[in-house]
Structure to design on (95 residues):
């Protein structure tokens, strides 16, 4: 189900980072902010960064901590997020 909140209040999705992203597909609504909280439960160097090229985001994810990234997708489409090395992949599907 899409993340829904009151106007201007981002929906929030928590994504576990451990050998990949769980969930690796997130639904969102165009024009509504979305808060992605990455819960990194490992120390593998591959997953230490989250990259969202469509939003110009590259963020360090400390091990065993929560890191929140807020995006505001203006148009429908599929927006990928990956680790810094491009090995782990997830996506935000915006309708």
């Amino acid at each position: 189900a899409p993340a829904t909140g009151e106007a201007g209040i981002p929906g929030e999705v928590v994504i576990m980072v451990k050998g990949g992203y769980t969930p690796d597909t997130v639904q969102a609504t165009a024009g509504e902010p979305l808060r992605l909280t990455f819960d990194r439960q490992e120390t593998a160097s591959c997953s230490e960064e989250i990259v969202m090229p469509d939003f110009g985001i590259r963020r360090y994810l400390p091990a065993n901590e929560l890191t929140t990234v807020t995006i505001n997708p203006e148009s429908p489409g599929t927006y990928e997020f990956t680790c810094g090395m491009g090995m782990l992949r997830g996506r935000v599907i915006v309708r």
